[in-house]
């Protein structure tokens, strides 16, 4: 009898692991499939909206109507205080609830925002869409609160991967972004499974993965290391500025225009005015077009990074819905292209370095950012990306895109700090 009990005690951990693996394989595949399908539909909706904006020159004049409709929709569903991606992150790190209306609202409002040329991204919307759907599916299958947090991360991973085609980065990003210094390793298998399923479904249904050709990459030498360090330092400074502008623009809107309808109308007027001034429209929309122009070697004004930052702050602060991720990448791309012209460095390489260095600095996710660089540009520039990302992450301090993000451990000392980003 004693021997039987000892045998059972020895195999118990293995049995628990097998149970975990089977359980989360089924759940993550389900979440990846559902979120992948809905995110693909959203992705095609965004493509349609972008094409509509490009095809009909007058459509940006509808920004006030689209903005008012977005505010009205959130009011009808009593979601005026919906914090978007910050709410999704808080649901993982605390007991904040993700409302069931989040997914349909961000789906509709994200497409509306793109259709009128608001400078908002799609991947940030995917985090909200996927996180909300993951939470809903967790409720439907009666997951407990701890398991539901993993389901939310699965949904975030699947949505991000479906819309950007970077499953490795998407799978790790959801685990890394919530609490800096502590990775949710219990979600590793679920997030990666959901991520690859989401990306596979999206690819099979016509959403192509993003990939950019950066041209020849010079051998990594001492001068190359100095270039990566310099660009990392500059991107850290730019990242702090970007976060402050994004956060303070929203605060300024609310201070002087507390009524959300007046706020979105004011933002729409600014959007129309800016679009008329910069008639080539490279600063409207998510920013993928601006990134492609930077890599294609087309003429881009040196101040393009500042204008894209301004367009995005105006749109998000006013109440248009979307995300900050692709706009941030496009700001980094334009800044990198300018730096290349100043430093006499390879344009494609500098563009790529600054894209990921800025992204890593403002999201505070160095591991997933490095994976993102591999999936977007290939492995040839690995040492450049790694150094620039590390420098930008370290020097950007405790600033970040997401106010719900927590820094569990210090960036500069081996000590517990548990503070939020600013």
How do the strands and helices of this protein lay out in sequence?
Elements: H1 2-55, H2 63-76, H3 85-93, H4 102-115, H5 123-140, H6 145-164, H7 167-176, E1 179-180, H8 188-204, H9 222-256, H10 260-277, H11 288-296, H12 304-318, H13 325-343, H14 347-363, H15 366-377, H16 382-395, E2 406-409, E3 416-420
Parallel strand pairs: 1-2
Antiparallel strand pairs: 2-3
Structural class: mainly alpha
Low-pLDDT runs of 5+ residues are: none
Percentage of residues in DSSP E strands: under 5%
- Give the number of DSSP strands: 3
Fraction of residues in helix: 55-70%
Mean pLDDT: 91
Order of helices and strands: HHHHHHHEHHHHHHHHHEE
Major sheet: size, sense and barrel closure? 3 strands, mixed
Number of helical segments?
16
Q: Biggest sheet: strands side by side, in what order?
A: 1-2-3
Rg from C-alpha positions?
21 Å
Shape: globular
Ends: how far apart?
60 Å
3D architecture notes:
- With 422 residues, this protein is mainly α.
- Helices cover 70% and strands 3% of the residues.
- The chain is built from 16 helices and 3 strands.
- A 3-stranded mixed sheet has the order 1-2-3, with no helix packed on it.
- A hairpin with a 6-residue loop joins strand 2 and strand 3.
- Helix 2 runs antiparallel to helix 10 (260-277).
- The chain starts with a helix and ends with a strand.
Which features characterize this protein?
422 residues, mainly alpha, three-stranded mixed β-sheet, 3% strand, globular
């Amino acid at each position: 009898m004693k021997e039987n009990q000892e045998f059972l005690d020895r195999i118990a951990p293995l049995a628990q692991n097998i149970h975990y693996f089977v359980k989360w394989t089924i759940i993550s595949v389900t979440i990846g499939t559902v979120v992948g399908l809905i995110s693909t539909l959203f992705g095609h909706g965004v493509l349609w909206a972008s094409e509509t904006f490009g095809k009909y020159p007058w459509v940006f004049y509808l920004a006030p109507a689209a903005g008012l409709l977005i505010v009205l929709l959130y009011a009808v569903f009593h979601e005026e205080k919906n914090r978007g991606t910050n709410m999704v992150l808080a649901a993982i790190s605390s007991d904040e609830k993700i409302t069931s209306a989040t997914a349909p609202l961000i789906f509709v409002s994200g497409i509306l925002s793109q259709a009128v040329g608001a400078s908002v991204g799609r991947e940030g919307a995917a985090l909200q869409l996927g996180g909300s759907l993951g939470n809903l599916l967790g409720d439907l299958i009666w997951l407990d609160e701890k398991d539901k947090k993993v389901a939310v991360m699965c949904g975030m991973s699947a949505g991000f991967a479906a819309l950007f085609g970077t499953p490795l980065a998407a799978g790790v990003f959801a685990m890394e972004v919530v609490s800096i210094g502590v990775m949710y390793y219990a979600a590793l298998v679920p997030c990666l499974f959901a991520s690859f399923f989401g990306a596979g479904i999206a690819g099979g249904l016509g959403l192509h993965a993003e990939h950019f050709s950066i041209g020849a990459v010079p051998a990594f030498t001492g001068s190359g290391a100095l270039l990566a360090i310099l660009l990392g330092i500059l991107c850290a400074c730019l990242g702090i500025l970007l976060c402050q502008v994004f956060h303070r623009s929203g605060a300024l809107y609310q201070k002087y225009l507390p009524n959300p309808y007046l706020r979105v109308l004011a933002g729409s007027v600014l959007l129309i005015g800016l679009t008329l001034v910069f008639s080539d429209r490279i600063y409207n929309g998510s920013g993928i077009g601006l990134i492609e122009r930077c890599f294609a070697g087309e003429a881009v004004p040196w101040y393009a990074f500042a204008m894209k930052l301004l367009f995005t702050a105006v749109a998000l602060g006013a109440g248009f819905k979307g995300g900050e991720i692709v706009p941030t990448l496009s700001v980094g791309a334009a800044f990198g292209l300018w730096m290349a012209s100043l430093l006499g460095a390879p344009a494609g390489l500098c563009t790529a370095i600054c894209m990921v260095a800025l992204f890593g600095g403002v999201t505070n996710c160095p591991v997933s950012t490095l994976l993102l660089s591999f999936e977007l540009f290939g492995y040839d520039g690995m040492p450049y990306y790694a150094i620039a990302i590390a420098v930008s992450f370290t020097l950007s301090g405790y600033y970040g895109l997401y106010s719900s993000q927590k820094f569990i451990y210090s960036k500069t000392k081996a000590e517990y700090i548990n503070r939020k980003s600013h």
